[in-house]
Amino acid sequence: MTKSRLTGALTSLVLASASAVSLAQAPKPAAAPAAAPGGAPAPPATSPHKPAAELDQIKWLEGNWHCDGKAPAGPMGPEHGYKSTMKVKRDLDGFWYVGDYEQKKSKENPMAVKARSFIGFDPVAKKVVSLGVDSFGGALQLSGAIEGDKLTTEGEGTMGGQKMGFKQVFTKTGDKSLTWHGELKMGKDWTVVGDDSCKR
Q: Does some domain include residue 41?
């Protein structure tokens, strides 16, 4: 089922925090920043927020990848091969990996898919999180873990108005190579949707 293929992982969780305001007292005005020598305002404090160190463990995802893929025979059609490209970069001040994936349309692969994914780390849940969307209207939200040279995520999404389960595994196989494996669940059984072997 190639139309649901997504790279990775891929999420865009937005974490926000707010402080409580005491009901017993009126809010106090914020103190003015201390003046720097010469009377100039002091520069704003540096943000305490930093990207999770865990994201450094998957730096090997970054780069421009050229992939050979294979989709097994299934309800959506016969077994076939395909070519694809994947571009992954660290973005948004280092908090997310953004990936763009595109298959090449061919006689064997007439329903080539394009997808975009976001991979980050949730410091509260202590899990990798990802969000993926594709050119057929599909969307996935996954979470998982990094184990050595392997990134595994699993979750749920929708495609064609139907709820589905999805899981994927990225594996570093060399300094300039990786593989991707994806499985789809609609009903009770998991079905392999594709395997990509990529080089940069």
A: no
Total domains, the chain: 1
Query: What predicted TM-score, i.e. pTM, was given to this entire model?
Result: 0.74
Q: Is residue 133 part of a domain?
A: yes
CA–CA distances in Å: residue 42 to residues 33, 48, 127, 142? 6, 17, 38, 43
- Report how far residue 138's alpha carbon sits from residue 119's, in angstroms, rounded to the nearest whole number: 17
Examine residue 140 and state whether it is found in any structural domain, yes or no.
yes
Tell me the pLDDT tens digit for each residue of 140-194: 999 999 999 999 999 999 987 889 999 999 999 999 999 999 999 988 899 999 9
- 56 Cβ contact partners less than 8 Å away, ≥ 6 residues apart: none
For residue 56, the domain's CATH number is 2.40.128.20
Neighbouring C-beta atoms of residue 119, cutoff 10 Å: 29
Neighbours of 154 (CB within 10 A): 16
